[in-house]
């Protein structure tokens, strides 16, 4: 099976093509989108009364959602528009999960989460991340306006770009990957390798292309989900580091782990060939090189060593029982997961 319920509207100034009708709209917006005037632009194109929810936290916690659900229940909007990064879109989706009575439009301002097309919202509970999944929280419309990602600081381009790359790679080797999901995965991988560095360096064209690639990777994970890299990165939420940073920290090491599975190795080899590389090992080396070029070499400096070691057992234990692991091509025990964390910390990201 392959599914996509979201209508994708893309291109420069595509925000202006949103002519949404209804009774009332709740606009969840990041403060930066308000500052740049894009939120007002959205408000001006819709033909209904609206109210704006701002000051939305990055990496949202379960307890943050309650107040939004309360407001939605009181105001009774029949449309929700989320404009901002993955955290803003996920906050809107998690609120809709409980409220249920609205259609959702997502307008991403970063190029990574793919949340504008998926039916999952990532939340944290005491720092540890988990996903709420329901088909009614998948946006009905996603607007990919290339002016928005142009505003991203370079660091955010790096974090979100690596997240998109991990979505594309993990979905490609997933146990439930199909020729349809893999078509989106492989195209996204190619675009990301060709454009992430230029996007990081500020190229407008590359930012636009990356914005589309991130959505393609989102379509791939909607259908084939993610694997061990995401499971382990979610547990690193307790360090309060951005999702994309945790993903970068683990991507190459988790690939090396998966490579011991024959089917996964074949699939990595296929990705490598598509990129003009010799084999799966070269693919991992290429990812390391890319990380270095976009300033993500020594990720360990973001995580205190003692703190890391103190939390290692807990993270590994939580990761080993995560349901998402069933999509990963290779089974992983708590002991093996712990070893991957340690290798990533002591060997791979110094
Ligand atoms: Fe992700």
Give the topology, please.
Blueprint: E1 7-10, E2 25-29, H1 31-35, H2 38-45, E3 50-53, H3 62-75, E4 79-84, H4 86-99, E5 103-108, E6 120-125, E7 128-133, E8 141-144, H5 154-173, H6 179-200, H7 204-224, H8 228-235, H9 243-258, H10 262-274, H11 280-293, H12 305-320, H13 334-348
Parallel strand pairs: 1-8, 2-3, 2-4, 4-5, 5-8
Antiparallel strand pairs: 6-7
Helix pairs in contact: 3-4, 5-6, 5-7, 5-9, 6-7, 8-9, 8-12, 9-11, 9-13, 10-11, 12-13
Provide the descriptors you would attach to this structure in a database record.
53% helix; two-stranded antiparallel ribbon; 8 strands; alpha/beta; six-stranded parallel sheet; binds fe (iii) ion; 350 residues; 13 helices
Rg over CA atoms: 19 Å
Tell the overall outline.
globular
Roughly what fraction of the amino acids lie in strands? 5-15%
Give the uncertain stretches in residue-range form: none
β-strand number: 8
Please trace the helix and strand order, writing H or E for each element. Answer: EEHHEHEHEEEEHHHHHHHHH
**Strand order, biggest sheet?**
1-8-5-4-2-3
**Number of DSSP helical runs:** 13
Q: Give the end-to-end Cα distance, rounded to a whole number of Å.
A: 42 Å
Percent helix: 40-55%
How is the biggest beta sheet arranged? 6 strands, parallel
Provide a compact summary of the structure.
The chain is of the alpha/beta class.
Description:
53% of the residues lie in helices and 12% in strands. The chain is an alpha/beta fold and 350 residues long. Strand 4, helix 4 (86-99) and strand 5 form a beta-alpha-beta unit. The longest helix is centred in the middle third of the chain and has 22 residues, at 179-200. The chain is globular and about 55 Å long. The model has no long low-confidence stretch (mean pLDDT 96). It binds fe (iii) ion. Fe (iii) ion (FE) is lined by residues 163, 167, 230, 243, 247. Fe (iii) ion is lined by residues 163, 167, 230, 243, 247.
């Amino acid at each position: 099976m392959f599914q996509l319920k979201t209508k994708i509207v893309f291109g420069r100034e595509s925000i202006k093509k949103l002519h949404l009708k209804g009774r009332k709209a709740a606009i969840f917006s990041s403060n930066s989108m308000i500052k740049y005037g894009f939120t007002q632009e959205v408000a001006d194109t819709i033909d209904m009364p609206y109210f704006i929810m701002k000051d939305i936290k990055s990496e949202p916690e379960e307890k943050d959602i309650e107040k939004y659900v309360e407001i939605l229940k009181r105001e009774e909007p029949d449309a929700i528009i989320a404009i901002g990064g993955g955290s803003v879109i996920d906050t809107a989706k998690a609120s809709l999960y409980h409220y249920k009575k609205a259609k959702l439009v997502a307008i991403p301002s970063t190029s990574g989460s793919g949340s504008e097309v998926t039916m999952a919202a990532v939340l944290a509970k005491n720092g540890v991340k988990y996903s709420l999944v329901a088909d009614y929280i998948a946006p009905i419309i996603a607007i990919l306006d290339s002016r928005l990602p142009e505003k991203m600081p370079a660091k955010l381009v790096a974090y979100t770009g690596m997240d998109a790359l991990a979505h594309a790679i993990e979905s490609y080797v997933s146990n439930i990957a199909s020729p349809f999901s893999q078509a989106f995965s492989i195209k996204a991988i190619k675009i990301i390798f060709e454009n992430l560095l230029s996007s990081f360096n500020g190229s407008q064209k590359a930012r636009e292309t990356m914005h589309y690639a991130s959505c393609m990777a989102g379509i791939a994970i909607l259908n084939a989900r993610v694997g061990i890299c995401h499971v382990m990165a979610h547990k690193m939420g307790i360090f309060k580091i951005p999702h994309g940073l945790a993903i970068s920290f683990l991507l190459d090491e988790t690939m090396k782990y998966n490579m011991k599975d024959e089917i996964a190795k074949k699939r990595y080899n296929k990705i490598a060939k598509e990129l003009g590389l010799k084999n799966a090992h070269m693919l991992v080396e290429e990812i390391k090189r890319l990380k270095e070029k976009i300033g993500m070499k020594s990720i360990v400096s973001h995580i205190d060593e003692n703190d890391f070691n103190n939390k290692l057992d807990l993270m590994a234990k939580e990761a080993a029982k995560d349901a998402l692991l069933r999509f990963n091509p290779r089974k992983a025990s708590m002991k093996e997961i712990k070893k991957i964390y340690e290798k990533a910390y002591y060997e791979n990201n110094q």
